[in-house]
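Troubleshooting log. The previous run stalled partway through. Resubmitting the same two chains, unchanged.
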Amino acid sequence: MNAIRFPQPAVMMFCVGLICSSTASAQVAITGKTVHTMSGPAIANGVVVIQNGKITAVGPADQTAIPAGLKVLEAEVVTPGLIDARSVVGLSGIFNIKHDQDQLERSSPMQPELRAIDAYNPHEKLIEWIRSFGVTTVHTGHAPGELISGQTIIVKTTGNTVEDALIKSPAAVAATLSSSARKRDKGKSPGTRGKMMAMLRQEFIKADAYREKLANAEPDKQPERNLHYEILIDVLDKNVPLTVTAHRAQDIASALRLAKEFDLDLILDGGAEAYLLADKIKAAGVPVILHATMIRPVGDAKNLSFETASHLVQAGIPVAIQGGYESYVPKVRVVLFEAGIAAANGLTFDQALATITIQAARILGIDAKVGSLEVGKDGDVALYDGDPFEYTSHCIGTVIEGAVVHDHPR
Amino acid sequence: MRIQAVLFGLGIMLLASSAAAQEIAQAFVGAHIIPIDGEEIDNGVLVVQHGKIKAVGPAGSIPLASDVQVHDVAGKLIMPGLICTHNHIGGMGGADSSAPIQPDVRIYDSLNIHDSGFKRALAGGLTAMNIMPGSGHLLSGQTVYVKLRKADTIEDMFILDTKGQPMGGMKMANGTNSRRDAPFPGTRAKSAFLVREQYVKALAYREKIERASGDAKKMPERDIGLEALLEVMDGKRIVHHHTHRADDILTVIRLSKEFGFRVVLHHISEGWKVAEEIAKAGVPCSVIMIDSPGGKLEASYLAFETGAVLEKAGVKMAYHTDDWITDSRLFFRSAALGARAGLSRAGALRSLTLSGAEMLDLGDRIGSLEAGKDADFIIMSGDPLSVYGKVLQTWIEGQKVFDRGDSKDRLYAVGGYGAGDEQEPYFCCFDQEGENN
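Second attempt completed without errors. Output:
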């Protein structure tokens, strides 16, 4: 009876299941010795009140009334629910076998028409895993590794269906300008960096022509619907941002060049060598969803630095830190840990926490809803028994829209 | 020419003075000292000379000679250099794809000591490690125990046994990584059979040697692979065995009993399920700490709690980096996350040092700060189990080999342009394509 000898994993899954299904009362108050609202200075002995899933009050305990009948949770440190600004969780599963890997379709190098909502599995174990460390919102979807791999979505880390979990779809179109998008087989494109850019440019030019055709055709002579170009038009119209995964400085420069030519709403993803181009990134007004601090220094990311987040923040660039994509282990990274290493390498505590809360929300365009503890925002909260970034602290609770979705030290 | 002569002379003088510096004792005064084999010392003194530790104790308890070189390390922390029982740095390449069992291959014949991985390891406070071939084979070759000394060749890093031979173990693996197309096994039972067959062969080889009783003419033809397996069965070479699933762990224990080899169980994602059986077998464990379960089927039940469960069951446990799997600069994290999940502080600190040393038969030489042991230690800015604690200096045998204050050393500690290698590691199951590219 293994489960009895070491019951945590089995029991954990069971309990969370129970909690998820009994979220009727989305009414809860959370008290913290320190409450990091991320909308102002931290509050000592603070309270967050959540009713009907939304934050209805935040303030010092002596000035904030807790309505009668509310369940009260206590913690040493309270933060907004964490946001993983770029992941593939829910598409890339825990087992890492063919059947649970839906993050990358290899049949063609450019498939922006692939929707993440059609591939996201809200029951994936790894979602439960990151939730237990305080992650409440994830920007996830098609992985880097093809020139345009597909679309992304933003979801809450609960929900029985993708529709339950969904905040935004499509959140972005994911492009890659780095070695992984390069084909090594003879006769296959793109085989070089130059060809990658040529293909992307040609595709946006075609999308633009299709947009023109749509605009100019008589209502009864509209061209056939083209799902591929429809989403690229959304990108050209800046309705949907383009994320470009690029680690090497030269690839980051290419991404900036592309965005300038087509006037795109660009979000840089990865950015291992972004410290070499901070001025140019800043001048272009482009935010960076930085690679997980602890990814391996191999391949295009071989020159990564633990201090990149600090460099970029100091340069005034909006920075979020991502969990990212791993082809092996760890199958999902925990942004809490990744921001912690950045906090130990140049970022202040507040700056580091911002990269996985309010700054992530701003970059993703969801800051009216999540990312800070403010009245009117979703009741998404993480509870810790100490400095959240310390290795030996625990996430003791996770609350999503007022429902307790994790409730034991992890 | 004259200038050159002067410079040359200066060089000689510098060399001479640094040699002299090795001879006088050095005292590190005022730090919080974690000796590992005893209580932590709040305001301590560490005295080293001739590459060895002379004395450790509370400040004032150790008389310092007048010619001792004193290092004021007040406010800092000193503990033994970290020891990693399982590492893949140095561009290692052991067994090739020709066969599943290749005991003839020595990993040290493949290592590039200029690999940046060694520099990152020093930045992480590692002073000794077991460098191993990968896990894509049932038996992928001989491992090597090294000290991360300044070196020109891998020989300069060797740890020698009493006969002057380089120390090392044997890398074995079971479970999914070594299950591949023929000639590799396709199932677990076939995996175990192939291993048993090979050990039986080695036993027959030994019998032939014994029957020859010294007569060179009757001796069998030398087989360096079987020789290495005999070293395994003679207990000279410890088997370092990759194994994840609970049943695979028990298979390793079964085979080690059958052939009498000494074994350290490595990774053991599901070790928590069979901690009592492991304890009963008296087998030590070197645990991998990964930020999430999965990534491969057999690691789906990996848990942060493994270290704590093993400690409670009375199993000797260490952590390892498995570097490139986890970064040597973050080795402390593994033990600290273990502590997060219930491992004691003392157990966590021992798991990075003395326990690892013992798993490499080096417990009497390294792994703790004790008089007579090698002067391998690190100076830290803060607590080793805190994310904010940093390795400031790493010392091996009384020589400073890493200094965070040095800009070159710092590049490897933190990363940055030029810190990366061209060389990539070889793993059986690691998709380089999808990783960071």
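Takeaways: Chain A touches chain B through 63 residues (CB under 8 Å). The longest strand of chain A covers residues 166-176.
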